[in-house]
Amino acid sequence: MDRNSSHMMAGSTQTAPAISETEMRSGGPTAVSQLRVPRGFWLPFLIILGLLVALYFRVGIKLVVDWYNIADYSHGFLVPLFSLFLLWDKRHKIAATPIQPSWAGLPLVVFGLITLVFGIYGVDLFTSRVSFVILTIGLVWIFFGKAILREVLFPILVLLLAIPFPAIIFNQITFPLQLLASRLASAVLPLMGVPVLQEGNVIQLPVMKLEVAEACSGIRSLMSLFTLAVFYGYFLEKSTSRRIILALASIPIAVAANVARIVGTGLCVQYWDPNKALGFFHEFSGWVMFVVSLCCLYLVHRVMSLIAPATKEAA
Amino acid sequence: MKSPRFWTIALLMLVTLGLLLHRRDADNVPHSLPLSMMPLTIDGMNARDFPLDDETLTVLGKGDFLNRLYVPQTGSSDIAPVSLFIGYFATQRTGQTIHSPQHCLPGAGWTFESSRYTNIADINGKPFNVGEYIINNGESRQFVIYWYQAHGRSVANEYRAKAYMLADAIRYNRTDGALVRVITPISGTETVDAARARAVRFTGLMTPYLPQFIPN
């Protein structure tokens, strides 16, 4: 993460001048009059960047380890790349935005640093990780001003998707969804000739017991699906409101995919081979789930376009 | 380089870095005895251990767990058994936290019939903040008492427990803590109050042993 974060910083705080320089060299048409780079311009930024890396070195390593180890957050590796892509995509617009350093960003910087200290001293991973986003926003604001911040805010906020949610809150949201999926699947299976007995997230099939998710957790893949929906919406949809709808659609889709997973397993047990059913069940928690969700997203997107055809500018 | 903004920020970040380096990257973990040394006889009932399977242990994470049934001795068959579960984590630094029964029990098919926070006193008169719950899964009902125990403090609410964990991590650099859960069945022939009395009496006799396993 800190390597990414330094890239991230390089992206967020240095894009403007970096671009402006290349623009100047290539004789780009953008307005660069207000972007003359004085001598020694880079040194302060390198120092700030170095400090940032030093501050987040441990936090970053632990975060990358978590991405690697926690299956539900393996999408974390993609998020910084996506964020960088967004910055690169907007590079001309950022370059054309005037730099107006402003003290107004100071409170955010201070708040970010306090949050970091609190997170480290209070041993709360989430707090210390979120502080990076707060601090980055503050730094951009104070050194480059509000106009540039407005341009890079979304790419910075996207980084939040890579931060594992505190279990205490995440379960509150996802656990009811998991129970709902178990209930729906148990309602559907008998209609297809598979008798079931459902107790919470434990589903008793005629020959075996299915423990949907670990007994205590909710739909753990929700964060990955949500991230997928954000990416999808960004690349395949132009209007903000529709992107938000697509992102939110990931919640019912997560439930639907889980229902499909349980029902599919039940059908395997009943009509095919109980031993292979468990394989299916576990396989389905991985990439198949992902593909099914992507198809669902596509369908939702299509339905959206049918109900309200995109206007010309959003086409 | 002369920008006051730069110097202000650089200074703030340096101070923060100093604060971070000042804090070691390890918890104070006070010495504690393994939970398996919990007395085998409590309230005239004898313990039967039920080791947790590997899958459950994976979910629970790196801690010390006790999963026991205290069964009335023969001849006193008119009383139901009491189940005791304790999960102790020496450190919660790595992001693993205590699982709340609020999710585990419904996940296993139990629904919460009623819940309330209350105080119970152990045999030495020491008060404990606990949550009392009645759960059922259709045919059977159980009376549950559970709370979070850390550094000599008992807390029933998981959010408050989390807040105390943050505060204690900052103050004492400790993130150890435990969940204590006592369950007894409410048989068809007895009142809820009778089951509650049994659970409370057991809890009151058991808690004086806790500090050896869950340091104050």
Most extensive interface: A-B, 47 and 43 residues
Count of discrete alpha- or pi-helical segments spanning 4 or more residues of chain B = 6
Question: Beta fraction of the residues of chain A?
Answer: under 5%
Low-confidence segments of chain A: 1-34
Radius of gyration of chain B: 21 Å
Mean pLDDT of chain A: 80
Large-scale geometry of chain A: elongated
Number of helices of chain A: 12
Averaging pLDDT over every residue of chain B, what do you get?
A: 88
The helix/strand series of chain A, from N terminus to C terminus, equals HHHHHHHHEEEHHHH
Q: What share of residues are in beta strands of chain B?
A: 25-35%
The tally of beta strands of chain A, per DSSP, is 3
- End-to-end separation of chain B: 52 Å
Overall 3D form of chain B: elongated
Helicity level of chain B: 25-40%
SSE succession of chain B: HEEHEEHEEEEHEHH
DSSP, total strands of chain B? 9
Briefly say what this structure is:
The complex is a heterodimer of chains A (about 325) and B (about 220). Chain A is mainly alpha-helical and about 325 residues long.
Give structural notes:
- The complex is a heterodimer of chains A (315) and B (216).
- With 315 residues, chain A is mainly alpha-helical.
- Chain A is built from twelve helices and three strands.
- The radius of gyration of chain A is 24 Å and the shape is elongated.
- The model of chain A is unreliable at 1-34 (pLDDT under 50).
- The model of chain B has no long low-confidence stretch (mean pLDDT 88).
- By secondary structure, chain B is an alpha+beta fold.
- Chain B has helices at residues 4-22, 54-60, 101-107, 158-172, 192-206, 210-213, and strands spanning 41-42, 45-49, 64-72, 82-89, 111-121, 127-136, 141-150, 153-155, 177-186.
- Chain B is elongated.
- The chains are: A mainly alpha (315), B alpha+beta (216).
- Chains A and B meet through helix 2, helix 5, helix 6 and helix 8 of A and helix 1, helix 2, helix 3 and helix 4 of B.
